Amino acid sequence: MSGNESRLQAIHAINNSVAAEVGMPESLQSIWACDVFNLASMEEKLSKSAFKAMKKTVQTGAPLDAATADVVAMAMKDWAIEKGVKFFSHIFYPMTNATAEKHDGFIVTNFDGNAINEFSGKLLIKGEPDGSSFPNGSLRMTNAARGYTAWDPSSPAYIMHTANGATLMIPSVFMSWTGEALDKKIPLLRSNAAMNKAAQKVLTLMGEKNIATLNSSCGAEQEYFLVDENFANARPDLILAGRTLFGAPSAKGQQFDDHYFGAIPARVQVFMQDFEDQLYRLGIPAKTHHNEVAPGQFEIAPYYEAANVAADHQQLLMTVMKMTAKKHGFVALLHEKPFAGLNGSGKHVNWSVGNATQGNLLDPGNTPEENLNFLLFCGAVIRGVHLYGPLLRAVIASAANDHRLGANEAPPAILSVYLGDQLEKVFLDIKEGNLKPTVSGGDMDLGLSQILSFQRDPGDRNRTSPFAFTGNRFEFRAVGSSQSVSGPLVAMNTMLADSLEWIAAKLESSISGGMDQTAAVIHVLKALMDEHGNVIFGGDGYSSEWHEKAVNERGLKNIPTTADALPAFLDPSVVELFSNTGVLTPVELKSRYEVYSEQYILSIEVEAKLVVDMATTSIYPAAVSYLSVITESLNASASLGLGLDASVATKLADNINGMMASVEKLSAAIAVHDFDSEKSHMEYSAKTIRPLMDETRAFADTLETLVADKFWPLPKYSEMLFIK
Ligand code: ADP
Ligand code: MG
Q: CA of 538: how far to CAs of 315, 367, 419, 547, in Å?
């Protein structure tokens, strides 16, 4: 049997695969949100008064009374049963990046042995999973395990269809019996409330009279790779770690820049159509899709929504993506760096705050220099990123994202803010105490009569910035593709709340000291720029000059690994930030530190074990078999006096020995488990285990370039990236 059998079988299977049937796309109107119990379906099913109460809860977070909850539960049950649902589940968002669900039937039996469907407000409101079996950072033990889930009425319930039937899914929060948040939703809701409270203060000081509840919005662009499942199944690293731990570069990679926005391969188009139809049914407004930079890489971006709903939808989108990919014979890779040497995948979190009365407060309009509310909110963000840059780095820290952030790839691990020319000038003018009118982008005129002229944007795009202003929102570009968007949203909302409180206090004292409103705004913004203006940067974020300057001249932090980043959660200023704003208690915050540290350590440990295993049981045997074949030929040629050059054999032997020596070192390193803190264990993972994995890989990848193709067991980069 030749070593490449699994590869050949995979290619054969792909050549003979039959495309999944999806049929013509249905009209948007006929499928849009048909599986969602949203306000529109509630209006149909609920009495006027119950509907009014629900609407108020959804839109302003007002509490819902028990009687109304009962009415809503009944209506929700009837709606779901009409659609063939037998089970319901609270879906919640533990401190992993995944979701969790426990399914219960509507069924109850009565004394006559008959089964009836029952679902009460009580069941809707509260569920009771075990709190100790999810990551909880010492908040729960197996002997003190009680946890609760509770319905979040502000995120709509929906029906999830699988081959095994349909389930009513009820978005929920998850807490311990002692009331601590064990999930990612509670902090997000709290951060929104904190932001609203502080924003109300500022807007009131600005003379606004009618101020609706403020909410944050999020539109997340999701990058991902698709690999044929026949290849993925032949690669234990892709299956267990979500990325390739070995693999020599393909001769053709992304050097031609021909994949970005290129024509989408037919099979992928069919997948996308199916995927998006399912998203529409679930009320997820998928809007944009295209090829990304690397071969086999794609992006999907839904239209933005209220942050809490967007966060739930983002999780659901990842789940539906994986399920649909499988149906089409693909594996969807959400890992931040599945293939070395190619672009990694991120999730750009577009974020703004606003309400129904003042609109989007991050929209500058045409004359930002006159839009005082905008200047205050934008200034608040600048201050937040400057003060809490290390926190923003910590909330996106993971073993996988370190391959993007710490490496020489986009975006850099230094948190700076890009404003664009026009706005940067406004803020610099404020700093100089000399605010002048700005110039807009002007008309774009190509001198071609058939092309209509249009207004040019006032600022360019800067793809090297981790945190960029993009017209009416900020785009946090450094978030990892597999991460929940909640952590970043919590950090952004909370730092904004803190900055707005700071601004409100300053404004208040200036105004009560007799300053007029405009002067008070300029006064506070000048102070803000003096202290925090250093974080604004419009140049090339990848350049080595910036790395040097950011740290030495600007005093910004370059935080390359998760081991360096996570301790920000323990920083007194961060502990204070979260407790002052009521978003996380010190105990809750510490539990996050513990959970994320452990996840980092465990991910690297799993990968390291896989490296040892694959090098020993798959790469070593292939290389040795091939070596024995060429050694035989060398001996035969020598006996005939032909004298074949033995250098390939020597190189092979050197790399085989080198690889196995590294494997020895790595195995020994994995066995060490005695650390005095999470931090020292994380540093060990970053500085000892990771480099040994890289060392092993370097030998293995060289072997891939030496061993005859027919002996090589693992699907190669060229195959996984280009055969579809
Ligand atoms: P690009 O790739 O140019 O950054 P996309 O159109 O792919 O832009 O994605 C932009 C994302 O930003 C979309 O999800 C969009 O809905 C979202 N977005 C647009 N305006 C806002 C806003 N005011 N607040 C939050 N998100 C927004
Ligand atoms: Mg973008």
A: 32, 20, 7, 13
Name the residue among 621, 610, 611, 614 with its Cα closest to residue 2. 621
| Chain segment 499-532, per-residue pLDDT in tens | 999 999 999 999 999 999 999 999 999 999 999 9
Residue at token pair 């000291």 = 513
Task: Check whether 22 has a pLDDT greater than 80.
Answer: no
Q: Please report, as a single letter, which amino acid is at residue 290.
A: H
- Nearest-Å Rg of the Cα atoms of the chain is 28
Look at residues 57, 54, 33 and name the one whose alpha carbon lies nearest to residue 45: 54
Closest Cα partner for 73 from 88, 61, 60, 63? 88
Q: What is the pLDDT of residue 28?
A: 87
Look at 374-388, 522-536, 638-652, 654-668 and tell me which has the smallest mean pLDDT: 638-652
Protein residues whose CB sits closer than 6 Å to any atom of ligand 1? 217-219, 221, 288, 301-304, 348, 350-352, 360, 472-473
> Of all atoms in ligand 1, which is nearest to the CA of residue 299?
7
Q: Are 32-183 and 192-598 in the same CATH fold?
A: no
Q: What ranges do the domains of the chain cover?
A: 32-183, 192-598
pLDDT tens digit sequence for 314-341 = 999 999 999 999 999 999 999 999 999 9
CATH code for the structural domain at 32-183 = 3.10.20.70
Give the closest ligand to the alpha carbon of residue 363.
1
Which atom of ligand 1 is found nearest the CA of 472?
23
Architecture per CATH, domain 192-598, reads as 2-Layer Sandwich (3.30)
